[in-house]
Amino acid sequence: MVWGLNMPSGFGNYLPDGDFAGYGDRLKKYFVEEMPEEQKAKFGDGAGSKYRYHVSQKFTEEPGSVLGDGIPVGQISEHEWPNKFELHKSYAALGSLFQMPNRLLAVETAFKDVVERVEPGIHQFRPLSVTTRIGKVFPKQYYTLVIGQFLDSFDPIASDEGTWEKAKNSDSYLVYINSKKYIAGLAFSRSAIGGAQLWRERKLYSPEIYFSDTLKAELEKAGLRLPQHFQMKEL
User: Is the Cα torsion angle 170, 176, 177, 178 positive or negative in sign?
Assistant: First the structure.
């Protein structure tokens, strides 16, 4: 079966209160001092704020897709990866998967190792230093995760009535209410999923992250802590 996961909306172990250290300044510096003029003109913003927003989309959207800024989403350049996440509050522990600003995802080493073993060569990881609010390095090693595949496996017709709604100004969908009752009624095509283990859906915005029984079992075997997730229908 397929599993759906929505990241939490309130601060906690899976959405820690924090920010990227020096990251915005680094992107702005690149935009102002290093980006070729012909590329810079596409963003039409001397301060680089539109460029920084465009970079954030590279971590959550499918390469080649065209969103609000009209510029196709490209691959992440080396200078566009964050390298440090500073916590603003004290946390005894963080989730094995947690969300950072602009919906970027972070995972601990054990999560990365499971994904790379179960589905090698599909997803991207880059080391990320996580520091406490008093400047000490958090005990575990973390990585920024970019989910590397997008599927069209959601089947609104086979889903239970009333479990989804159309997204505004879009031909896409989202779960009607973020709860087990509604998420469990969503249906997916087994043939469209194929052998995929971890993915995002192209036309279903919520839940945000999808994974297979196989990946779930391996993550559980490794004792990893995930945000709340629910089993859905696979036909």
Answer: negative
Cβ–Cβ contacts within 10 Å for residue 23, how many? 19
| Helices H / strands E in the chain, number of each | 7, 14
Mean pLDDT of 118-137: 95
Joined tokens for residue 28: 């702005």
3-class state of residue 28 by DSSP: helix
Confidence at 177, pLDDT banded by 50, 70, 90: very high
- Angle 93-180-116 from CA coordinates, rounded to 5°: 50
Q: How far apart are alpha carbons 137 and 115 in whole angstroms?
A: 24
Does the pLDDT value for residue 20 go beyond 80? yes
Strand residue runs (E) in the chain:
2-5, 18-20, 84-87, 97-99, 105-108, 124-131, 142-146, 150-151, 164-166, 173-175, 187-188, 198-201, 209-212, 229-234
The reported pLDDT for the residue numbered 1 is 86
